[in-house]
Amino acid sequence: MPELILVDKQYQEHIALITINRPKELNALNLQVMSEIRDALKELDDDDSVRVVILTGNERAFAAGADIKQMAGKSAVDMLLIDQFTTWDQIRKTKKPIIAAVSGFALGGGCELCMTCDMIIASETAQFGQPEIKIGVMPGAGGTQRLPRAVGKAKAMEMVLTGRFISADEALQAGLINKVVPVDSYMTEAVRLAQSIAVQSPIAVQLAKESVLKAYEMPLQESLAFERKNFYMLFATEDQKEGMSAFVEKRKPDFKGR
Ligand code: DAK
């Protein structure tokens, strides 16, 4: 049983919720939290009743970064042997869409964890930042790579080199997040987005997610070829027949994920 996160497999129909639960430490991501998130995502990925996952913290903090107290005394060799990257890579490989519902601080590893998710819904109080520079290091879980792809080089460079936090509004304008809503409705908004994905064909959603991610990982010609194969593959599914028949018959499709 996880101790530092809460997992609700049936938060809503087809929607699971993972809540990071270290409120006193502003949800600092120690090794145990990250392993528990990884394990929960793997279990939810394997569960056909789940179609979308929401990852959240609490109103004050999504996560204020990796646990500085746990990292402070580590040597380079300790960090290498702990090999946190494998855990982060496994999270990135989750097949189902993950929506980060963010309020308060999303800093350092917390910001990187949001960016490892597929979409971000933020409350007006959310603050995003990569403040690692202020403690003598730099982002290590994708912050120097995913942030510039999301907000462009100039803003990413400023955030990474000065540690400045940006507000939810600035993050929205910069293209880092999907939507900003009042603090009392960020979970409702995340659920609304999750529901609009959960009604689609799960298999099409999975292949579409995989294809969009390739836009960041491959040269254009290769990712276009990848997209094409996934597109063809969907014509082998019952959901494609159902989706197109339903359109022609003017009814709602009933997707089974087959
Ligand atoms: N780690 C550990 N404890 C933290 C923490 C953190 N990141 N952030 C906050 N806390 C703890 C505080 O120590 C405090 O604990 P007590 O003193 O009460 O025991 C409690 O949470 C409340 O925090 P504050 O008293 O500081 O609250 P304030 O409202 O005054 O300030 C703050 C909130 C978020 C501005 C401040 O706490 C802060 O600056 N926190 C640190 C933010 C930060 O620097 N984050 C980046 C950490 S480095 C990797 C993957 C990821 C990473 C690295 C490698 N690999 C895959 C290899 C990531 C690195 C990082 O994230």
- By CATH, the superfamily of the largest domain comes out as 2-enoyl-CoA Hydratase, Chain A, domain 1
Give the strand order of the largest sheet, numbering strands 1, 2, ... along the chain.
1-2-3-5-7-10
Spans where pLDDT lies below 50 across 5 or more residues? none
* Structural classification: alpha/beta
Distance between the termini: 31 Å
- List the domain count as a whole number: 2
CATH architecture of the largest domain: Alpha-Beta Complex
Give the SSE string: EEHEEHHHEEHEEHHEHEHHHH
How large is the count of helical segments? 12
Which molecules are bound in this entry? 4-(N,N-dimethylamino)cinnamoyl-COA
Largest sheet: 6 strands, mixed
Task: Count every beta strand, where a strand is a DSSP E run of 2 or more residues.
Answer: 10
Q: If you consult CATH, what is the topology of the largest domain?
A: 2-enoyl-CoA Hydratase, Chain A, domain 1
Backbone CA Rg: 19 Å
Write the layout of secondary structure elements.
Blueprint: E1 5-12, E2 15-20, H1 31-45, E3 52-56, E4 61-63, H2 68-71, H3 76-82, H4 84-92, E5 98-102, E6 105-107, H5 109-116, E7 119-123, E8 127-129, H6 143-151, H7 153-162, E9 166-167, H8 168-174, E10 179-181, H9 186-198, H10 202-217, H11 220-234, H12 238-248
Parallel strand pairs: 2-3, 3-5, 4-6, 5-7, 6-8, 7-10
Antiparallel strand pairs: 1-2, 8-9
Bound molecules: 4-(N,N-dimethylamino)cinnamoyl-COA.
4-(N,N-dimethylamino)cinnamoyl-COA binds next to helix 2, helix 4, strand 6 and helix 5.
